[in-house]
Amino acid sequence: MWSYRLGEKLLRALVKEHPKPGLSLMTIEPPVLSNTRDVIFKVAYCSICAGDLKVYDWDPWAASDATLHLPTVLGHEVSGVVEEIGSEVKKFKPGDRISVDSFLHCALCNYCTSGFTNLCENREIYGKRRGAFAEYAVLPEHVLVKLPDSISTEEGALLENLGIAVHAVEQVPHYPGELAVVMGSGPIGNLAAQALTASGLKVLICDKVEKRLKSAQTNTSIIAVDIRKDNLGEIVHDLSSGRGADFILEAAGSEPALLQAFDLIKPRGTIVTIGTYGSPVTFNPFFQMTRKEVRLFSSIGRTAQTWRKMVLLLDSSNINLKGLISCLLPLEDYENGFELAKSKDVLKVLLKP
Ligand SMILES: [Zn+2]
């Protein structure tokens, strides 16, 4: 476990010290191998996520997050290079490029042994007690994954996001030619649209931010709809010959988007939510769901099975991660990075310790 002490020690890290806005760039003690299966890695890149912005601003969502323990090094979307390994580490050697499954799981509980490591009974979300906006970090080998040769270390910091998108998509089976609607063209929506396209679906992605919609059109078969200008309902009606969408991913985390999803989905179609809703959503399940037997699912994190699918997708060159990287900044420039990351025109900001 990290300990925090201002002073003479070696490593720089970005720490959420106090329950108020802002972060502290401070020095911390270097990580140590306290377990034979631990791996120390040099952080290459760590990306700023929407959740980090909430913690940075100390908004009500962050202030009420019981899993967040201060002080903590923030950051969980990370890539790095293995520096040192414990005596029983089998999967990694120094020099290996890695990413992290930010849902730190125990690998022993009922959920872990059933494959649902994302729902581990002893789950710790990386960045809530310790994190990766630091020069070095240490984690057990079972939460690390090797980066596929097909991607760069920069892109490796985005695998956490790709996992969220792929796991949301894999909640139900898909068939080529079906119509999928992705609501919200942020990083997760963008990657989900790519994963659905790779499965042969007809994909429509919608948003009201033009730049994000442009970035989401990684592929000519992805239809981008600006909801400020176009009538989403009419377009979905036309594309589905009046039946409605087969699958909807609500990645905007907004009440109007979810309520519209109930109108757009076909009878017995599936809606998956992954957004972090800031406030409760009000709807009548009978009118919005029961009359069409709508299936409403939610999705969080990713599993070992998701990682296997991600590697296949990346190896088949069906996923463009590079297009999501808006800028790379040194860790010292974190204030600038966090302000940039708040802009809807920016997809991902990566910090390099
Ligand atoms: Zn577990």
Residue ranges: pLDDT <50 for 5 or more in a row?
A: 1-7
Q: What small molecules does this complex bind? A: zinc ion
By secondary-structure content and strand pairing, the structural class works out as alpha/beta
Q: How many runs of DSSP E, i.e. beta strands?
A: 18
Give me the strand/helix succession: EEEHHEEEEHEEEHHEHEHEHEHEHEHEHE
Cα-atom radius of gyration = 20 Å
Explain this structure to me?
With 353 residues, the chain is α/β, with parallel strands linked by helices. It is 26% helix and 27% strand. It has twelve helices and 18 strands. The strands form four sheets. Strands 3, 5, 6, 9, 10, 17 and 18 form a seven-stranded mixed sheet that branches. Strands 13-12-11-14-15-16 form a six-stranded parallel sheet, with helices on both faces. A hairpin with a 7-residue loop joins β1 and β2. The N terminus is likely disordered. The protein binds zinc ion (ZN). Zinc ion binds next to α3.
Outline:
The chain has 353 residues and is α/β, with parallel strands linked by helices.
Which descriptors apply to this entry?
single chain; 353 residues; alpha/beta; 7-stranded mixed β-sheet; 6-stranded parallel β-sheet; 12 helices; 18 strands; globular; disordered N terminus; binds zinc ion
